[in-house]
Amino acid sequence: MKRVLIPLPDIDFDLTEVSVPWKLLRDKGYEIIFATEQGNRAYCDPKLITGVIFGQLGATPEAIGYYREMEQSREFLHPVKYAEIVPSAYDLLHLPGGHAPGMRQYLESKVLQQKVLEFFQLKKTVGSICHGAIVLARTIDPATGKSVVYDYKLTGLIKSLERLAYYITFWKLGKYYRTYPAYVEDEVKSVLMNPDNFTEGNGAYRPFVCVDRNLVTARWPKDAFVYAEKLIEKLSAC
């Protein structure tokens, strides 16, 4: 049975970007393993269940339903620690996103970055969506001194979406939509051989996935189903 690893922060991950791939991959018979920094059970950003502002901007009922199902699964309730991850034991790494402050634990973890590096060194299939691209950008290959995605074509949360969400909610939520001073797109572009290798896709509201060799990337929750289907396609071809 092929095995899939999904690392998470303790709190604030995007429930759609985790539960949709989990549901589709599990229904195909793949074994899913979650990981958190200390092996604690993780919790999603609660605003995505109740609605970010005036009950809007949250996850869809379908994604919330998947999350409620995932919450009851043994693998979600009993994650491994980042330090216990053995990349050679997995066929796929999925790096989800999220923008709330709790994500920084995951986005800044040097232990996790080392594990991501090993996935690339082993040429395993790696996927990321939204802020997951930051983990990729910050994973440095010591052999080159450059990011593991330096010469890849990829995508992540695009600036126009991140900026719009920030502008329309700042009056109520402050910097809730600004995980860092730099936009995700700008940080990722800064580590690429060619900044044009960061692609925005064909319109923000059309589902989009970018595939380059062993790397599969997407931009935000609306891409989650197409992204998960592409991961399944890659796993099936292995």
Radius of gyration: 16 Å
Query: Helicity level, as a percent range?
Result: 25-40%
Strand order of the largest sheet: 5-3-1-6-7-11-10
- Number of extended strands: 11
Distance between the termini: 12 Å
Give the biggest sheet: 7 strands, mixed
On the 0-100 scale, what is the average pLDDT? 94
Shape verdict: globular
CATH superfamily: Class I glutamine amidotransferase (GATase) domain
Return residue spans where pLDDT drops below 50 for at least 5 consecutive residues: none
**Architecture in CATH?**
3-Layer(aba) Sandwich
Q: How many domains?
A: 1
Quote the beta fraction: 15-25%
What is the structural class?
alpha/beta
CATH topology: the name is Rossmann fold
CATH class: Alpha Beta
Write the H/E string, N to C.
Answer: EEHEEHHHEEHHEHEEHHEEH
Compute the number of helices.
10
Q: Which structural traits does this protein have?
A:
single chain, 238 residues, alpha/beta, Rossmann fold, seven-stranded mixed beta sheet, two-stranded parallel ribbon, 38% helix
